[in-house]
Amino acid sequence: MTHENKFGLFIHWGFYALTGIQEQAFARMNMPREEYESLMYRFNPVQYDPEKWVLLAKEAGMEYICFTTKHHDGFCMWDTKYSDYKITRTPYGKDTLKMLADACAKHGMKLSLYYSCPDWHHAFGYNPASTHQWKAHTENGVNTAAYLEYVRNQVRELCTNYGPLYTFFWDIPPRIKEPSLNEMIRELQPGIFINDRGYDTGDFSTPEREYRAVDGERFTRMTEACNSLGEQSWGYREHEDFYSIRFLISAIDRIMAMGGSYLLNVGPNAEGEITEDYARRIRRIGDWYNRMEGALTCHEADDFQYKIRGNNAIVTKKNGKSYFHFPDGTRSSSIALQYFPGIPKSVRLLNTGKELSASIDLLPEYQSNGQALPHLHITGIPIDDLSDEAIVIEIDW
Ligand code: GLC
Asked: Would the CB of 171 count as within 6 Å of ligand 1?
């Protein structure tokens, strides 16, 4: 299944954006329930234009959008029949998910849905077996059956009323086994991929945040890593501590070269906009991603036992060509291979699209018993102009 590797946009959006703090501000800032939940009556994102979001994702080369339909606060971003704690009861009044689904359909963007297992609003949202229960109602006791019925009804709506779905992203493993939920999703959405944070094993793993994969190892299970543009929040944060472009590009290149997908997250604000602080980072990363000409998707491992001097590389193959990924860049303006399968027909630096020169050279620093050894020497990488980018070199043997 590793062929399913794609680049996507994760969107954490709810009325928590009004706090400007975090998607879990209710718990993390210990806000009184009344104060937090009444924010829904102030939620009126009149600038919401999902087509803009879809076009931003498209511009960045992304193939899917994963949207938070219900986060831990329990608030529903669609017109569910099963709760009044929902977007259509806010001053805004419209089904935000429907609008996004329509915009995705119009632009050929795949849609994935995020759904939180913890629920801090539902009378029986409390699950003592799981984590992230801080604000759940405990005064009603535990009634797992009643809550699961609610989840089932809601997930049925989500899988019925919003067109074809690409993946289903449960969040926070409930540590309750209920395989019939995933079975229902698969029946309603044939071909869907389901993650590993739900009521059954699912199809793919979901490492998140600063997860650092081991270079060179390919994922053996379908994997989708995710991180947010900023360190402190997945939802909109007024004063976010943004990661460096270098850090994010390096993670995306590493995960995708290993066969995984990558979901990069933004938090739109309470007006419904992806503000320039977030948008320009998506565009910058997308600019790099687009110059990779699709080399990060649908590839396979290159099994040749290369010996690459001094740099960590992940080598993949696609359409008969090899791709040398250097997620942290190369340490100098050249790379040298001691073991290689032949003389290249062409060598190209995807970052610039330009040919690099390649020759067999005797390199004095790489020697055996004082004798310089011949290497395939690829030179002329403009590293100082690419200091915040992962470097990818294409070789046609
Ligand atoms: C973590 C966060 C949660 C977020 C999720 C995304 O579990 O606690 O808020 O939605 O990551 O993967």
From this structure: yes
The two structure tokens encoding residue 286: 């997308």
Q: Could you tell me the distance, in angstroms and rounded to a whole number, from the CA of residue 397 to the centre of ligand 1?
A: 43
The answer, yes or no, to whether any atom of ligand 1 lies below 6 A from the CB of 69, is: no
The rounded distance, in Å, linking the Cα atoms of 304 and 344 is: 14
Number of domains in the chain: 2
Q: Is the CB of 273 under 6 A from ligand 1?
A: no
d(CA 16, CA 37): 9
Q: Per the domain annotation, does 1 fall within a domain?
A: no
For the chain, which residues score pLDDT lower than 50? Answer: 1-2
Query: Taking CA 28 as the corner, what is the angle to CA 27 and CA 30, rounded to the nearest 5 degrees?
Result: 60
- Please indicate whether residue 207, judged by its CB atom, sits closer than 6 Å to ligand 1: no
Domain identity same for 236 and 354: no
Q: What is the pLDDT of residues 134-150, one digit of tens each?
A: 999 999 999 999 999 99
Q: Which two tokens stand for residue 392?
A: 């990818």
CATH number of the domain where residue 275 is located: 3.20.20.80
258 and 326 inside one domain:
no
Which residue range forms the structural domain that includes residue 381?
300-396
Please give the model's pTM, rounded to 2 decimal places.
0.97
pLDDT of residue 310: 86
If residue 373 lies in a helix (H) or strand (E), which one and from where to where? Answer: strand 371-379
393/355 Cα distance (integer angstroms): 10
Ligand 1 pocket, residue 203 CB under 6 Å: no
Q: What is the pLDDT of residue 197?
A: 98
Among candidate residues 239, 263, 291, the one where a domain is terminated: 291
> Best substitution site from 12, 19, 171 to test ligand 1's pocket, by max atoms within 8 Å of Cβ?
171
Question: Is residue 119 within 6 Å of ligand 1 at its C-beta?
Answer: no
Ligand 1 pocket mutation, candidates 29, 132, 208, criterion most atoms within 8 A of CB: 208
